[in-house]
Amino acid sequence: xxxxxxxxxxxxxxxxxxxxxxxxxxxxxxxxxxxxxxxxxxxxxxxxxxxxxxxxxxxxxxxxxxxxxxxxxxxxxxxxxxxxxxxxxxxxxxxxxxxxxxxxxxxxxxxxxxxxxxxxxxxxxxxxxxxxxxxxxxxxxxxxxxxxxxxxxxxxxxxxxxxxxxxxxxxxxxxxxxxxxxxxxxxxxxxxxxxxxxxxxxxxxxxxxxxxxxxxxxxxxxxxxxxxxxxxxxxxx
Length: 237
Prior knowledge:
The chain has helices at about 10-20, 35-45, 60-75, 105-130, 155-175, 190-195, 210-220, and strands at about 1-5, 25-30, 50-55, 80-85, 135-140, 180-185, 230-235.
């Protein structure tokens, strides 16, 4: 089993990689050039080149995926059988009518929607051909509760687009033995969130082991009858 993880150097990507390697997967840690050093440190921790491959670049670009898949085949002898599309981001802070430019909208569409689209385009052909595979995308509670994202409308819209795309594509590939699901987390207990919200109670947030465990379940054969789901992962927020 080979799992491609976008955002592999991030907090959730790292936690998931550890869970998957412990379950017998080999992982491909896909991240930006800025995250490359963290990904390489994680790969060493996971067991080195026999267990983890690092590939850095802009994963909103098709050519980056071509290179990553070629590297995966060289390292592990085949294409990814599983995918966790974690790469993304948040931008906001002002009402839409008060935005001074289109920067937040453009960043959210590229960071969230384009990376998911390119990942699906890159990963699905081999899975459909093999008639097996599983992908999980990371949405947001804002998909179900968009009113909680006042001041971040572009973010909410981008995550809704990601989940809707994943569910539509799940229907397209279901008869080919490929499953696609989504999780909808609320605030996650990451170092960045603790730093930016020092007065909040992180014990109410979604823990990284919890979110990673949910993703690992959806990727696994234990969830073989689940596809097209968007699973709330809200913690106590």
